[in-house]
Structure formats: structure tokens, C-alpha cells
Design brief:
Elements (H helix, E strand, L loop, with lengths): L3 E11 L9 E5 L2 E7 L7 E3 L4 E9 L7 E6 L2 E2 L6 E5 L7 E7 L3 E4 L4 E4 L5 E8 L3 E3 L4 E11 L2
Antiparallel strand pairs: 1-14, 2-3, 3-5, 4-13, 5-12, 6-11, 6-14, 7-8, 8-9, 9-12, 10-11
């Protein structure tokens, strides 16, 4: 289905010692995104599969409650699979962090590169989790999260 996206985004820096962003809300038109780091998380060293890195929610206004909501990261897709990404270290491009978006009542979408929520709820929640067990090198891993409403043209 052809569609148009209205989006909101946030740049979050994940450091080797802490995720230092707390509860900031961003809005663009009908979308509001909230992203929270997963506590005092150290990510240098071994990182277990599906370890929660951050949790978030995306909310829509009444006028767009029946539209699909799309959430994605502005990052390299891992194998072209929607909702799975490879984040490159800021200080060393050889440092990689594999993550995925995880949420109930959603499905991955290769066209947008993210996950799509359908239905008529005002607020949807999701997690950014480690995609597989990994050994993470100390670095800064920037994550640019975006969300939008898919509407018919």
C-alpha cells in the first residue's frame, strides 16, 4: 500500500557505561515518542540476546488512531530485515552493536525498515533490545529513533 509518513525522531547516545537520556518527549504533528534508557546499563563486554537497551512508547492523536504507526531506526538494516539494525560505533567504525525493535501487536516491515503497529490504540509500547549475544567494544553507539503515521495518499 502506498503511504505517506509523518514522523518524529530523537537522537539517543548509548555509551559504553551508561545510557544517559531520560524520559524526553518529542512530537511532530500527530505523533509523540517517548524513549527511556534501561537504567544504568553497561554495554562494554558481553551483551546477552534480547537484553533491553531502551523502552519507548509512541502515541497518536484521535484523528489518526486508525492509521498504521511505523517505528524505525535511521541505521543500517541487518540483512535487509525490517526492525533489525547494525549500529556503528561513533569513535571506531569497526565497533558494531546489533539491535532490534521488539513489540507486541506489531510486525516487521521491509519497506519502511521498521515495525508496524495496526489497530486503533492511542499508545503503543516497544523495546530496543540486543539482537543476539554479542561482545561489545567500549564506544558511543548513536541511535536515531523515528516514528510516523502511515496514511493513504
Amino acid at each position: 500500500m502506498a503511504g505517506k509518513y509523518h514522523w518524529a525522531g530523537k537522537l539517543m547516545l548509548l555509551t559504553s557505561l551508561l545510557i544517559s537520556v531520560a524520559g524526553t518527549v518529542f512530537a511532530a504533528q500527530d505523533v509523540k515518542v517517548t524513549l527511556r534508557p534501561s537504567g544504568q546499563m553497561q554495554i562494554a563486554g558481553r551483551l546477552g540476546d534480547e537484553r533491553v537497551i531502551a523502552t519507548g512508547s509512541v502515541s497518536v492523536t484521535r484523528s489518526s488512531v486508525d492509521d498504521n504507526i511505523v517505528v524505525w531506526l535511521n541505521a543500517l538494516q541487518d540483512g535487509g530485515r525490517g526492525g533489525r539494525y547494525i549500529i556503528t560505533g561513533k569513535n571506531n567504525e569497526n565497533n558494531k552493536l546489533r539491535v532490534k525493535l521488539k513489540a507486541e501487536d506489531s510486525h516487521s516491515d521491509n519497506n519502511s525498515g521498521g515495525i508496524v503497529f495496526t489497530g486503533n490504540r492511542f499508545t503503543r509500547t516497544f523495546e530496543i533490545v540486543a539482537d543476539g549475544e554479542q561482545k561489545i567494544t567500549s564506544d558511543v553507539y548513536p541511535i536515531n529513533l523515528q516514528a510516523g503515521i502511515e496514511t493513504s495518499l
